[in-house]
Structures are given as C-alpha cells and as structure tokens.
C-alpha cells in the first residue's frame, strides 16, 4: 500500500504537521474512548503523536503502532521509552496482527493518504474484538484548513498546472462530509458516529509556516519543489503576501478542522 504522503525527514514532518497532530491526538482519543486494561493499535503512527499521547494514559495495557514509512518508524522508535509500546513497519491495508487482537484501533491523519482507505478500515475492524472500537480522523482540506487552502488558492492564480493538484488535495479519500461514516458502515461497523474536531495552528512567522513546505515536505511541498525557479519565486512571494495580509510578518493563528469517525465492531 504505497502512501501518497512523501517524507523528506522526520524533523521536517514535525514542523509541517507533527506539532499540530500532537494537539489533535487528545481530542481523537477522547472521542474514541479508552478503558483501563485496553490494548490499543495506532494505525499510521508517523513520528508518534497519537502513540505517545496514548502512553500518557497509565491504565492502558498495550500500545502497538505501525507505519508504512521506515523514516517514521525509526523516529518513533528512537523516542520510545515506554515498555507498553511496540512500533513496527507495516501496511495499514494488511495489518500484521491476528483477528480480535485489540480493544481499539485508532488512526490519526492517515486514511486520506491510503489509496484503498476502505481496506484499511476493514483491517482495523478485523483486528479489533467484538464490542471494541475503530476510530479515525482526517483533515477537512476543503472546508477546514484555511492555512493550506491559502497556499493552493494562491498558487492556481499563478500556475494553471496547480488546478488538478488543488482538486486532488481538497478531495482526498474520506474528506467529504459523511464519507468516513459511509465507509465505516460499509465495513460492517455499527453505532457509527461522525463529528468534527477543532484545533488552532499557530505560526510565529511566515518562515515558520513556509519553511517545511519550501523544503519539500508533504503534498504541498512536493508541488513547490517541482516548480521552475521563476515560478517558484512568484509563488513564494504571493503566498507570503497572503500570509501577511498587508500587515508586518509575525505570528498568525488559523482554525483547523478534522473529520472524526468511530464505530463498534460486532
């Protein structure tokens, strides 16, 4: 299962998204629910935002985490000091665990990068015991991520080649209202509920925002890295102007919304 998310470095990902997924992780955990003694699987752990948030719950018996990227697996493993946590490289669409292994399987900001997202939901349900919970969250790129829409909406005014990329970014798997819920139901989960989770992304400066994108991290970074020098200069300047919005460079705060869904295994 190739992921559509490119990883240049673990540190770059932390600047791009890891610092914000740390804020989102507790909200998803609360939505998923936990009980003392639970065995929990983190599907697509990245650098460990959800994994280590789970580790802050002392009542959990076991925390397993997988990711497709060896860069992420190495970074998360290096950080880990909790004996309850086991991290390994694996495919979300072919989880290396037996049926009914866990009480909960949770996925944070991953399913929209899985080409066969429904298969990943099916695998999460397979490894959770009857009565257990599957939960996931993905960003609402179209309506809930103004900081990223700002970049794409600016880019398409300068580069018509960005038009199909913007559409792909805005409508990745699981991002339309009700889409995750429909997928959960189609995979046999019951008591399915979809909601939205809100955090704020706060940047100290334009460079704080643009640095990891300019370095090639993530889908936006891949696009920027492929521009010719003249177009790259124009996009850089236009996005900076959008970020500053006529005021001096400095701190900015943006609301950011994720879709979240949970369901029970029967």
From TrEMBL:
Matches recorded under PANTHER family: 2-METHOXY-6-POLYPRENYL-1,4-BENZOQUINOL METHYLASE, MITOCHONDRIAL, METHYLTRANSFERASE
Heme recorded as keyword: no
Pfam families the UniProt entry points to: Methyltransf_11 (PF08241)
One MF annotation (Gene Ontology) recorded for this entry: S-adenosylmethionine-dependent methyltransferase activity
Keyword terms, alphabetized: Methyltransferase, Transferase
EC numbers, comma separated: 2.1.-.-
Protein name: Class I SAM-dependent methyltransferase
Lineage top rank: taxon: Bacteria
InterPro entries cross-referenced by the UniProt entry: Methyltransf_11, SAM-dependent_MTases_sf
Residue stretches making up the Methyltransferase type domain: 41-135
Gene Ontology biological process terms in this record: methylation
């Amino acid at each position: 299962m190739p992921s559509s998310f490119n990883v240049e470095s673990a540190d770059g990902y932390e600047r791009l998204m890891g610092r914000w997924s740390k804020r989102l992780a507790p909200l998803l955990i609360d939505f998923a629910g936990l009980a003392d003694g639970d065995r929990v699987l983190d599907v697509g752990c990245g650098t460990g935002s959800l994994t280590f948030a789970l580790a802050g719950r002392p009542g959990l018996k076991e925390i397993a985490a997988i990711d497709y990227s060896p860069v992420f697996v190495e970074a998360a493993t290096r950080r880990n000091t909790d004996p309850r946590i086991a991290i390994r490289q694996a495919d979300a669409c072919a989880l290396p665990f037996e049926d009914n292994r866990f009480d909960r399987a949770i996925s944070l900001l991953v399913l929209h990068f899985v080409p066969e997202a429904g298969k990943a939901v099916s695998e999460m349900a397979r490894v959770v015991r009857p009565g257990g919970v599957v939960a996931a969250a993905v960003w609402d790129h179209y309506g809930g991520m103004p900081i990223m829409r700002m970049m794409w909406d600016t880019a398409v005014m300068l580069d018509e080649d960005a038009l199909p990329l913007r559409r792909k970014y805005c409508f990745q798997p699981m991002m339309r209202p009700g889409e995750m819920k429909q997928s959960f139901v189609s995979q046999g989960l019951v008591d399915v509920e979809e909601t939205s989770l809100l955090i704020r992304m706060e940047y100290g400066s334009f460079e704080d925002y643009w640095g990891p994108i300019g370095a090639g991290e993530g889908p936006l970074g891949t696009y920027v890295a492929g521009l010719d020098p003249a177009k790259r200069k124009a996009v850089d300047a236009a996005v900076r102007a959008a970020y500053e919005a006529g005021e001096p460079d400095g701190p900015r705060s943006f609301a950011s919304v994720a879709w979240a869904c949970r369901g029970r295994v029967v």
